[in-house]
Amino acid sequence: MFDNRKNILKIFRVVLLLIIISLFFSTNVYASSQVEQDISINTGMIILFIIITVMVILFIFEIIRIDIVALSIPAILVILQPWTKISLEEALSGFSNKATITILAMFILSEAIKNNGFVQVLGDKIANLTGNNIKKQLFIICLIAGITATFLNNTPVVAIFIPIVVNLSRKTKTSPSKILIPLSYASMMGGVITLIGTSTNLLASDISQRLINHPFSMFEFTKLGLVIFAVGLTYLVTLGYWLTPERIDPDEEFTKEYKIETFISEIIVFPQSPFIGKSIDQIKEEKNYDMDVIKISREEMSLEEPLSSKTLKEKDQLLIRMDKETLENIMKSENLEFATKSKSRQDQLEEDLEKILIEVVIPNGSGLEGKTLEEVDFLNTYNSYVLAVKRGRDLPEKLENIEIKPGDVLLLLGTEEALENLEKIKRDFIIIHKETTEDYKKSKMFTSLGIMAIVISLAVFNITPIVVSALMGVIAMIFTGCIKPNQIYQAVDWKIIMLLAGLIPLGIAMEKTGSTEYISVKLLSLTSNFPIIVNLGIFYLLTATLTQLISNRASVVLMIPIAIDVANKLGANPFAFVLAVTFAASNTFLSPLGNQTNLMVYGPGNYKFVDFIKVGAPLQIILSIVTPLFISIFWGL
């Protein structure tokens, strides 16, 4: 169902895009006291609109990775320089941009703090504070996650809190589904309290400085961010709590969430079975069975790997992974029977095999994304078996042919050693169920927090620009051992860095070709007679809508120049419009695809696609009213 809904959403996005494009090109511009003349479209504008349209369609359908699409934009702009008016230096300016470098440094600083256990220590205290009261759990988790996301990127914050929520829910017999969507939303709203809360803020600050000479200071919009966070948190623990579904039964053994019996069964080879005298490889080839043998027991002894080449004998017991239909056919035709045990499936797997069950989420940017389970080869690569995959629906296809996607939850069977190895690959996995606990050094935790405090203080008191203090912070983290040099490259989400570097020149091209002014005049032809605060609300909704089509960073690149031009034509405060765009781009609640933190909680919460609309739509409407209202109160129009 997720894939079907995802395809429907893609079609909806394209239709919405076409409506927006036709609106800009078909509107009859008329003169008014505020819009004095029409702006004629030129060849440069047409070329740029084609580039943007193709880019958005590629973003929507993911035909090519979005970072690769973004990286191609500077080259295209230079090749078409006579019309785009972009020089080589301007095309490459995204790589040297202060926002890009600051965001890169903030990824490393966030990773250092995360690695040294700050959020985990907070998570360990939550159970003592809340007990079994799920509303208390919801409030405390959202509060702590939101506050933490004011200074750390919200993506690693959610990555850390997912296992905390899942394990806390299992200990206290509450449903993690009631908390995970609110966790994602709270981290987004917390990210707009300070300048460094999200990469979107930093990018918007750079554009604002370039266009109106008004960059954001560290706490410039904190008062608005706190209002938004307070309103959002109140919604999440009241109406939002009621709307959030309980998709996971808190009393259900966690292996049942995957319908594990569908995939794992233990069978006995009886006399006259055609399996006798054949190897597993022969059986799979002859019968075309989708079957993985995890264990073969013979006379109370477990056979050694590789199991696929072992010849089966009478009374062998096999622990196998297959789909339900294949298993039923085998039981009818191959003279095999189920081995009966009174143990729970989870205990059987863990005790009989001396292995443990490990649940992992595939995050955005994982190196496994786009690969099939067969290509990854978990047994040889990670010394573990994939028992099941959860993606908001049953997966009827052969397990080894499933293509791994961000948000997938994998149930693995492995050893303690395998778990330790998986924990080292933090870019590829978020481990959400494990019995082991990590031992953090408190000295490193306090050191990393102290360095972060100095980074912020240097920027707040204008001793150094944020880009300089952030880079100094990275060096300090390395020299104090808070992060290892080889970890800093893994800490950076290079997809976002490449996206920023590619999109920044696009914003410059819009201004130089006159595209920004053309679009602003078209918008004003519809809204110039409305009060300024209504125009502010319209820009909030337009940006929120556009962010559902493309990334939030692309939204601010495209929308801030237009918003500033509209504000100038209306005689309004351009900074107010910059803030409306920034807050709208950072708070996207309507789908699991709208923000990577939504995608991260989709699988662990066992959510349906519609759950994000049901919970997120009222919040989006509330903030579309509250945000413009308080912008007008705090900064004026």
Q: Key features?
A:
637 residues, alpha+beta, Alpha-Beta Plaits, 5-stranded antiparallel β-sheet, elongated
Separation, N- and C-terminal Cα atoms: 45 Å
Q: Uncertain segments of ≥5 residues (pLDDT<50)?
A: 27-37
CA radius of gyration: 27 Å
Question: Residue share in helices?
Answer: 55-70%
Shape, principal axes of CA atoms: elongated
Could you say what the CATH topology of the domain at 257-351 is called? Alpha-Beta Plaits
CATH class of the domain at 257-351: Alpha Beta
Specify the CATH architecture of the domain at 257-351: 2-Layer Sandwich
Order of strands across the main sheet = 3-2-4-1-5
For the largest beta-sheet, the strand count, sense and barrel status come to: 5 strands, antiparallel
Number of helices: 30
Q: β content, as a range?
A: 5-15%
Task: State the secondary-structure class.
Answer: alpha+beta
Task: Tell me, rounded to a whole number, the average pLDDT.
Answer: 79
Strand elements, count:
9
CATH superfamily annotation of the domain at 257-351: Regulator of K+ conductance, C-terminal domain
